[in-house]
Amino acid sequence: MARKRKGDAVSGWICLDKPHDLGSTQAVGRVRRVFNAQKAGHAGTLDPLATGILPIALGEATKTVAYLMDADKSYRFTIAWGAETATFDREGAVTATSDVRPPAEAIAQALKNFVGVISQIPPDYSAVRVDGARAYDLAREGVEMDLKPREIVIHDARLIEVPDPDHAVIEIDCGKGTYVRALARDLAAALGAKAHVAQLRRTRVGAFDEARAITLERLENLCHTGTPLEALLPVETALDDIPELAVTTEDAFRLTQGRSIVLLPRQVETLKARLGAARTVSACHGGSIVALCEMRAGRLNPTRVFHLN
Q1: Residue 60: how many CB atoms within 10 A of its CB?
Q2: For residues 113 and 176, what is the distance between their CA atoms, to the nearest angstrom?
Q3: d(CA 248, CA 241)
């Protein structure tokens, strides 16, 4: 007999506005306790130093985490000129200093060279794996590393303000795998300066943005009043770029049983136009997702089945 999970069968997403000095795993634990949820996970680690959007999946939503990991993200961060640190943020030991304070015009111009597909070397203090170990663990042990550059995409990078000569506020929209601390390092080098990230905030992960965000304090207050479900977003929120197809009750049942369904010719043509080179389709019934499917040869084959009723 299967062991019954502890907690409630709550499913959905929380768009958490993570506070400073709280780890992502700690944040997941506190959100899970609010809902007494059976399962929970997050889509994309956010350093304790950083604040902002941390999507947290509960219950059946954990099946969609992988689709959100590849989503585009947006960040707003403050660069502090004059000192480079071992971690390229304010928590690391200072490793180099400089008197150079780049003017706004030079910063804005230099940022243009970082837009598009670029090569970036991750910081030593990062979650990149080196021979099975995390780079940040090796860095703390004093192990010297030669991390390889990786291709990343920065869709846009803009200078927001220069509040004083020692600081610059920048916003970027980027693809997965982008390290803001590495961008600050490389931008400073391009300007002949030294710098580190003084403040970092993630403002968007896919469809999760600041307009949908809720603070941990607000969420826990809702728990005390018995209304935390008000903050819960649908499981489908993480799948905003996957085409939906409404299916019949009979087809929905077949999919939940792990069986494929046959599409009508007009459905095939409509989905082909919307999918492009992709094959993943979200099958829905009664306003809720039933399964994620792969379309092949005029059929939908379920790859992820959801039990939301």
Answers
A1: 21
A2: 19
A3: 22
Residue with tokens 């040869």: 297
One-letter amino acid at 136 equals Y
Helix axes 180-190, 104-111, angle to 10 degrees: 120
Helix (H) or strand (E) holding 33: helix 24-35
Catalytic residues: 47
Is the confidence at residue 140, as pLDDT, over 80?
no
Q: Which domains are assigned to the chain?
A: 12-71+207-237 (3.30.2350.10), 73-205 (3.30.2350.10), 242-305 (2.30.130.10)
Query: CA 159: distance to chain centroid?
Result: 22
Rounded CA separation 142/225 (Å): 49
Supply the pLDDT for residue 241.
Answer: 85
- Nearest-angstrom CA–CA distance, 41 and 39: 7
81 token code pair: 């000129």
The answer to whether residues 81 and 193 touch, using CB atoms and an 8 Å cutoff, is yes
Scored b (16 or more CB within 10 A) or e, 22-55 reads: bebeebbeebbebbebbbbbbbbebbbbbbbbbb
Is the distance from CB of 63 to CB of 56 less than 8 angstroms? no
| Full DSSP string of 93-132 | PEEEE------HHHHHHHHGGGSEEEEEPPPSSSS-EETT
Higher pLDDT, 2 or 165: 165
